[in-house]
Amino acid sequence: MNGLRLAVVLMVLAAPLTTVQAQTVTSQPFAALPGGTLVYKSVTSMRERRFINLVEQKTDFSCGAASLATILNQAYGLQLTEADVIHGMLAEADIELVRTQGFSMLDMKRYAETIGLRARGYRIAPEQLEQVKVPAIVLIDVRGYKHFVVMQTSSDGWVYIGDPVLGHNKMTIEAFAKGWNGIVFAVIGPGYDRNNALLSPPEPLTARHRLDRFRPVRDADLLDFGFIQSDFF
Fold first, then answer.
1. Could you tell me if 187 and 119 are in contact, meaning their C-beta atoms sit under 8 angstroms apart?
2. For this structure, is 188 an active site residue?
3. Cβ–Cβ < 8 Å for 126, 172
């Protein structure tokens, strides 16, 4: 990590911890009743919609922290910022490795354990992606750059991605597999919300169909993925 990147790290660490800021919602008036009476409707900007339910990455090394914060917030009801997770992971991480390579899945695993959760990596084939029933972190290659994103779900030949830099996106399984390292990294444990928003990512505005094909996950599916009965009580 060069001097500029290290300076960014230090700035993040020096910043006070804060909770996740609520999404900005504005009201737009429009004439909808006879006589020109105005009706106000809440609207969301294109950019806000792109990052809805996601923690946005603020530095060039923190994609893992932002992705992990996204899962912890949406699937476990926590209120963490990217900086919170960076601080937590640095407490258990090898600082020299972080300086040169960024955070790893091992750093994420150690941090998850400090907050009472478990984390596991699974090596699977592309054709098994649709069997993954929980949002997971995956490492993909973007033009030679290793980048952590959230794999929210996979269905009908598509993989739905929560990218901490680009926001919501979807790729064909074939395109996704070309840059993916074959591992899905899942955080599991008590307090998991099986109806969390990551399992129903927004479609592009031009989509003709909604994501109502996604259904709540059964206990049996979660048990197969590493959860235990006590996690549900």
1. yes
2. no
3. no
CB 29 within 8 A of CB 39: yes
In angstroms, the CA 30 to CA 10 distance is 47
Q: Return the bridge partners of 204, or none.
A: none
- Are the C-beta atoms of 213 and 155 separated by less than 8 Å? yes
Integer angstrom CA distances of residue 84 from 11, 23, 138, 205: 13, 18, 21, 32
pLDDT in tens, 12-50: 444 443 334 444 545 555 555 556 566 555 555 556 678
Q: Which of 54, 63, 86, 150 is catalytic?
A: 63
Distances (CA, A) of 119 to 109, 136, 138, 215: 5, 10, 13, 24
pLDDT digits (tens, 9 = 90+) for 95-134: 888 888 889 999 999 999 999 999 999 999 999 999 999 9
Q: What is the pTM of this model?
A: 0.75
- Other Cβ atoms within 10 Å of 132 Cβ, number: 20
What are the respective helix, strand and coil percentages of the chain, to the nearest 5? 35, 25, 35
| Structure-block tokens of residue 1 | 């990590």
CA distance 80 to 15: 14
Q: Which of 184, 118, 111, 199 is nearest to 154 (CA)?
A: 199
Which parts of the chain fold into alpha helices (H)? 3-14, 46-50, 63-76, 82-90, 95-101, 105-114, 173-179, 219-224
